[in-house]
Structures are given as structure tokens and as C-alpha cells.
């Protein structure tokens, strides 16, 4: 008879990802607002004042504003 393998496909609890929220709901609202502004063509970037056309950039601006307001957001990866 073959010996049973100890790893039967189940992961240990420490290897599992936590199911907690990454961003607070109010931070999501900030991102939503910035996305609307971008779609209307009103969203401008910081110093240059150029119009934002990238979806990723609009999200980054929304998260940045939420961070400044002290909402729960993970720290930036540098």
C-alpha cells in the first residue's frame, strides 16, 4: 500500500489570504468620484495640470486624496 502524503491539497491557515477589506468603503467613493471626473474630462494632474486620460492614473489620484483624508488604505509599495 502506498503511504499517504501529508499535504492533501489543503492549505494551512497561515498560508491563506486574510479576508479583511483592503480599502475602506469611503476610499472607494473617492476613487469613484475621480473616475467620474476623468470621464467628464475635468480631472487634471498635479503640477502640470494636464488632463488625465489614464484609468490607472485616475484611481491613483483617488487613492492619494483618500490617503490625505486619513482613510484606511494600504501603504504605497515603493
The biggest beta sheet, please? none
Total number of β-strand segments? 0
What do the pLDDT scores average to? 85
Order of helices and strands: HH
Q: What portion of the residues fall into strands of 2 or more residues?
A: under 5%
Radius of gyration: 20 Å
Notes on the protein architecture:
- The chain has 78 residues and is an all-alpha fold.
- Helix content is 38%, strand content 0%.
- It has a domain at 25-68.
- Helix 1 (25-40) crosses helix 2 (55-68).
- The longest helix has 16 residues, at 25-40.
- It is elongated and about 70 Å long.
- The mean pLDDT is 85.
Which secondary structure elements does this structure contain, and how are they paired or packed?
Blueprint: H1 25-40, H2 55-68
Helix pairs in contact: 1-2
Short description:
The protein is mostly helical.
Amino acid at each position: 500500500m502506498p503511504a499517504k502524503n501529508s499535504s492533501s491539497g489543503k492549505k494551512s491557515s497561515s498560508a491563506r489570504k486574510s479576508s479583511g477589506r483592503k480599502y475602506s468603503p469611503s476610499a472607494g467613493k473617492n476613487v469613484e468620484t475621480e473616475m467620474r471626473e476623468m470621464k467628464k474630462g475635468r480631472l487634471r494632474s498635479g503640477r502640470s495640470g494636464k488632463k488625465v486620460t489614464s484609468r490607472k492614473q485616475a484611481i491613483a489620484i483617488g487613492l492619494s486624496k483618500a490617503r490625505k483624508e486619513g482613510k484606511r488604505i494600504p501603504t504605497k509599495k515603493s
